[in-house]
Amino acid sequence: LQRLERDGLVESDDAAEDGPQKRFRVTAAGESELGEWLRTPPDLTSPPRDELVIKVLVALRVPGVDVHEVVQVHRRYLVELMQQYTRLKEDAVDDLGLALVVDAELFRLDAVIRWLDAADGRIKRAPAGLPATVPSSLPRLRRRVGVRR
Fold first, then answer.
1. Whether the Cβ atoms of residue 78 and residue 112 lie closer than 8 Å to each other
2. How many angstroms separate the Cα of 63 from the Cα of each of 58, 59, 116, 122, 134?
3. Which pLDDT score is estimated for 135?
4. 56 by DSSP, 3-state: which?
5. Which of 113, 10, 22 is nearest to 71 (CA)?
6. CA separation, residue 81 to residues 24, 65, 85 (Å)
7. pLDDT higher at 146 or 123
8. Which of 2, 10, 46, 56 is the most exposed place for a label (fewest CB within 10 A)?
9. Total-model pTM
10. Higher model confidence: residue 44 or residue 122?
């Protein structure tokens, strides 16, 4: 908030300066900046550095590691996490903001589980002995979706 105040995007209520919390209000410049930020789509063109994807790729390369077991351990954890969020959502009936955040997390977790299922299926269908290399095609993927580095 101090940076926003310094940049003229918010103003503080000087009357509450000695109290534990200052009150702030958005300035006209802040409203304009906020509106611009709200309408700017996030940059989702770069594939994220996803720890779970990395774990599955490493499991493919390490002799003696059962990649299917690695996938199932993470899948079970994600299902349990979804159950916890579902219980939280049931308690959030009077809190629209919390319900929206929980919905977003449930959709994200569902997508990760779907990816794990698809990865597990692809691994099972792969010819035996097919080398699982670290994707050298990542720069090509970035070019394909229009990411500039």
1. yes
2. 10, 8, 20, 19, 15
3. 55
4. helix
5. 113
6. 36, 25, 6
7. 123
8. 2
9. 0.69
10. 122
